[in-house]
Specification:
Layout lengths: L10 H13 L52 E10 L9 E5 L28 E5 L5 E7 L10 E7 L6 E7 L9 H4 L4 H6 L1 E2 L2 E2 L8 E4 L2 E3 L2
Parallel strand pairs: 1-9, 1-10, 6-7
Antiparallel strand pairs: 1-4, 2-3, 2-5, 5-6, 8-9
């Protein structure tokens, strides 16, 4: 995927990334990850708000932005998981990008005038992030719980590029969200196993960070 660029892994990114990956071991692994072929993570639309600007702070912590005094609005959420092949083998060195709207429902994108307009965008929210999977295929992001905006249920966009494999763009959804049943993009996933694969249950994670949530999103790539 030409849009996914090689990240600059600064000290802050590495230290926080390794800490998050270590903590991710406490989350349960999805059942069936070893013995049988896994459901491939379905491809979904990139949407109109793929980030145009990847300059500045682009690490895996979207809650704190270098140069901004305030932390992002919204509930801190740790999203962790692994990138796997269909046999359950981990894929190291995969590059993952995420992007989502802020707590006001606004993307970090010049064309987004949804809801309150760009002037109300939360400057304390990084809006997009990037990381690499570790040797065991693990990754981690610290972000905010996704929120709805007109026409869409809460979601986070993911773009994954693994060596020697086709790039994947998909979206992660929050299990139990009432708007899930009315979201047209989510409804386009017809296969029940693939639909389940993009649903993530967010649970309280007080031991990790006060007031935070955490969820596991394992991504399964085609050959």
């Amino acid at each position: 995927m030409s849009r996914i660029l090689t990240p600059e892994l600064g000290r802050r990114h590495v230290v926080r990334g390794l800490a998050a990956l270590t903590a991710s071991a406490a989350l349960p692994v999805r059942p069936g990850i070893a013995a049988q072929a896994l459901a491939l993570t379905p491809a979904q639309t990139e949407g109109p708000f793929y980030p145009r600007d990847w300059n500045g702070d682009i690490d895996n912590d979207l809650v704190l932005v270098t140069g901004e005094a305030a932390r992002a609005l919204g509930q801190v959420t740790h999203v962790v998981g692994r990138v796997l092949d269909a046999a359950g083998a981990p894929i190291a060195g995969a590059e993952i990008e995420i992007w989502q709207c802020d707590a006001n429902g606004v993307y970090r994108h010049p064309a987004d005038t949804s809801w309150f307009g760009r002037s109300k965008r939360d400057q304390g929210f990084q809006g997009r992030g990037r990381t690499l999977t570790a040797s065991g295929g693990a990754y981690a992001f610290r972000t905010i719980r996704p929120v709805p905006y007109p026409g869409r249920t809460p979601h986070i966009h993911f773009a994954i590029q693994a060596p020697g494999r086709a790039a994947l763009i998909t979206q992660m959804y929050v299990a139990g969200e009432p708007l899930n049943d009315r979201d047209g993009i989510l409804a386009a996933i017809r296969d029940p196993a693939q639909r389940e694969a993009v649903m993530v249950r967010l649970e309280p994670a007080e031991r990790r960070e006060a007031g935070a949530l955490a969820g596991r999103f394992d991504i399964v790539l085609a050959a």
